[in-house]
Each structure stands twice: as C-alpha cells, then as structure tokens.
Amino acid sequence: MPARSNLGLGLLVAVSGLLIGFSISTLAYRYRILRVPGGSIIERMNRDLQLTPAQRDRVGDILRDARFKVRQSQQEFQHHRHELFWQALQEVRGALTPDQQKVFDREFARPWTTHGGGHDHGSPDDFAEPMQTPAQK
Q: What pLDDT, in 10s, does the model give residues 52-69?
C-alpha cells in the first residue's frame, strides 16, 4: 500500500508542477515578460501596428539597411580595435631593453599574433625594429 501512495503523490507533484509552470509562462507571455519565439520585429510591428503592405515593405527595407550598417560598423570597430592593440604592443616593446624584448616576443607577442581575432599579424620576428602594424605592411 505505501508504494501506491508514493506513486500517487509523485504523480500529483508532477502534474502540479506542470500546471504551475504553464500558468507562469502564460502570464509571462501575456504581460510581455517573455516574447513569442521566432517572431521577427517586422512581424510584431505588422501585427501590433497593423501596417499596410507598403508600410511593411518600407519598414523591412529600413531595418535591412540598418542591419547592414550595424554589421559594417561592427567590422570597422573590430579592425580599429585590433589596430589600436597592435600599436600598444609596439609601444610596449619599444620601452623594453633588448633582453626584455626577446622575452616579450616569446611570451607576449605570440598569443596576439596567433590569436589576434583571426587576423594574421605575422610572427614575433615582425617585432624587429622598426615594427609595423598590419595595415602598414
């Protein structure tokens, strides 16, 4: 008899948990704490703003153009960031003694040259004076 009551209790707990989870998620969607998966911003605007077909097309064009500009800006930022870091490494190396430069080339330049965000910045030998940034090469 105790085995049946444990099974019944477990089943009751599981069903209660599912119902509570369903209720909470329904409220979260209703009050926009959670968003419907897969709904693009254009679809949501179309639904919520009741756009005309011409407006929907125009909004789509505007958002596609903005997305392209954002991606382009991100790429430019990444390139600029890498250039600034490369210049900083160049300045650091210039402040070191020849013995320190050897250690720097071995211990600090290599991780940047091999893992510099997918850009090939050359080998540690490229730190030999005068050092150039990848854009100058």
A: 999 999 999 999 999 999
Q: Distances from the Cα of 75 to the Cαs of 69, 70, 78, 89, in angstroms? A: 10, 9, 5, 21
Nearby residues of 86 by Cβ (< 8 Å), 6 or more positions away: 112, 116, 121, 133, 134
Calculate the alpha carbon distances from 96 to 45, 56, 92 in Å: 58, 60, 7
Q: Which residue has the tokens 């897969």?
A: 38
- Rounded to two decimals, the pTM is 0.47
Residue 35's nearest CA partner among 25, 46, 49, 48 is 25
CA–CA distances in Å: residue 80 to residues 31, 59, 76, 116: 42, 31, 6, 12
Cα–Cα distance between 13 and 16 in angstroms, integer? 5
